[in-house]
């Protein structure tokens, strides 16, 4: 692979003159028919299909005059302010990245048993992206846009299939350093709704930049990003969530992009950055991307159907359909290319809509399906004949050559674990304390359940026939209530944060341990508050053990039980990695642990082989603690007050147990469940599909035979 052989390289990849075209045709390997045959079938006179410069050479380098390099300027200034610290200067410098991809083929196995087939999602796609350019990957739905961006960013899920081809960064295969210079912006915004835009950036700056970067510099960097993304007006507004109104969809999207910019990526991948936005917001987001690319970055995004003003911002366009390239080159020249191929865009028509119309399958009737399928096949063949071979060729500029080594630096954590912990604790605390709806719901349900129970059991008397059973029942209910609330709280919290954690871990923002500890510690006040509230309402009204010490032990047990349940909730959500599966699984786990909790089946009645299960049931230890705390050493139950508390404990199988065992059991489970949750979170990183070598080019003779067979079949 080398410099393009067709002069201007800012987009068009077809040979630059008729001679080149013929050469391309001769070498052109996998096209099933000659250019003339293809044009004939498309209904275009070959003579008319002039290789005019209009679509081939693409537009002028419109950006070069507009490329302000403002970011680079301010970055250099900041580096000076830092006393020229080389690490700081390097951290903020945009590296020039030329991305090339050649014959990318991605296939997956679909179906089961005899119906198993291999589905080709990307079929030999080649292209390139140079620094300072904005590449749009367009195509009808299901054409392979997301798969291509994921393949280029190295983000295809590992179990998904097979990926063949070459992806080069400044002429070199992607190395470990690839991630340190790239950012990948997901389609869904993953942000804390309870933080403002500025706080979100400040946190990202603090956690991603080394401690050597002063606060003033970080503030400057945040201000720069806010102005670069035109977020000035929204800077101090909350991001917002289901309970709290926040910034607009476009501002949210730009904040999402801005977070990635704080690690100063040189290569930016975005999947559908305008999805779900109205035309105006979409325009703002794309303008922000245009500015970012103008500052020397290489930006690639998928986009479904851009309005015409957005289309004009694209430097390069890769148009896909059915996993094949329909066009790759200067975006401004795409319409001319298609009009030469016989598809003329009506005047005043949005080019984006036109290109999608031309390359979409029409499934409305068998005839229209066959017709559009054939059209797409011909357009794919025509493109392959004209430009596919040279599509991955790019000029690797001087800056890119110089930057090869910088692009090879592996990503490192910026701070030590203690700093990470304090930053994460600050964020978690802010998030929890501002999450009023959660606090109100937690407090509300505690008060309602507490009062309801108190009311139901207010007439409870130890000297009735059912007195003992009533008291045991209420204690077990306390166990279940404390456990369920904490577990489902943890399930939803961790599930809602999992996107954020994944993104931050992918950019090596922090270790899992400080994150986990910060979350754990941050939840303690909520659990303590809930335990005390519940205890205060219920304990005295119902008339449990009246000693003050027993009351505090009761509250401590509620707290420990909640913390153990929280750990179990985290472990379940870390193991399942999916909120819906986690919420479906949690009740089953809870029911098993309830069964072994000592209330429904006494310990002696459990088959010996299953008895060990009670030791991993926090409900068992909690229930044991509550009953010992309430019954031990007391008397006065039964109609004549003849039943002692110790007899009750004997009946439950807790006669020989002590309170300290309950505390110890719960403490061990808190450690055990949380350790399990931590380890699952730590070691279950998303795994991505490695890139295998591209298939060797087949000898021309073999290809020609295949082509004639293919044409004959059609
Ligand atoms: N792991 C997979 N297993 C089976 N089919 C898959 C897999 N990944 C993608 N596909 C299929 O490949 C095709 C391309 O998917 P992709 O998401 O890349 O398309 P897209 O152009 O981004 O679509 P959209 O615009 O709807 O997001 C689709 O038909 C999709 O269903």
Automatic annotation (TrEMBL):
<keyword id="KW-0812">Transmembrane</keyword>
<dbReference type="InterPro" id="IPR003439">
    <property type="entry name" value="ABC_transporter-like_ATP-bd"/>
</dbReference>
<feature type="transmembrane region" description="Helical">
    <location>
        <begin position="437"/>
        <end position="457"/>
    </location>
</feature>
<dbReference type="InterPro" id="IPR013525">
    <property type="entry name" value="ABC2_TM"/>
</dbReference>
<dbReference type="GO" id="GO:0005524">
    <property type="term" value="F:ATP binding"/>
</dbReference>
<keyword id="KW-0472">Membrane</keyword>
<feature type="transmembrane region" description="Helical">
    <location>
        <begin position="325"/>
        <end position="345"/>
    </location>
</feature>
<dbReference type="InterPro" id="IPR003593">
    <property type="entry name" value="AAA+_ATPase"/>
</dbReference>
<keyword id="KW-1133">Transmembrane helix</keyword>
<feature type="transmembrane region" description="Helical">
    <location>
        <begin position="516"/>
        <end position="542"/>
    </location>
</feature>
<dbReference type="InterPro" id="IPR043926">
    <property type="entry name" value="ABCG_dom"/>
</dbReference>
<dbReference type="Pfam" id="PF00005">
    <property type="entry name" value="ABC_tran"/>
</dbReference>
<dbReference type="Pfam" id="PF19055">
    <property type="entry name" value="ABC2_membrane_7"/>
</dbReference>
<keyword id="KW-0813">Transport</keyword>
<feature type="domain" description="ABC transporter">
    <location>
        <begin position="99"/>
        <end position="347"/>
    </location>
</feature>
<dbReference type="Pfam" id="PF01061">
    <property type="entry name" value="ABC2_membrane"/>
</dbReference>
<feature type="transmembrane region" description="Helical">
    <location>
        <begin position="472"/>
        <end position="495"/>
    </location>
</feature>
<keyword id="KW-0547">Nucleotide-binding</keyword>
<dbReference type="GO" id="GO:0016020">
    <property type="term" value="C:membrane"/>
</dbReference>
<keyword id="KW-0067">ATP-binding</keyword>
<dbReference type="InterPro" id="IPR050352">
    <property type="entry name" value="ABCG_transporters"/>
</dbReference>
<dbReference type="GO" id="GO:0140359">
    <property type="term" value="F:ABC-type transporter activity"/>
</dbReference>
<dbReference type="InterPro" id="IPR027417">
    <property type="entry name" value="P-loop_NTPase"/>
</dbReference>
<feature type="transmembrane region" description="Helical">
    <location>
        <begin position="548"/>
        <end position="574"/>
    </location>
</feature>
<feature type="transmembrane region" description="Helical">
    <location>
        <begin position="581"/>
        <end position="601"/>
    </location>
</feature>
<feature type="transmembrane region" description="Helical">
    <location>
        <begin position="659"/>
        <end position="681"/>
    </location>
</feature>
<protein>
    <recommendedName>
        <fullName>ABC transporter domain-containing protein</fullName>
    </recommendedName>
</protein>
<dbReference type="GO" id="GO:0016887">
    <property type="term" value="F:ATP hydrolysis activity"/>
</dbReference>
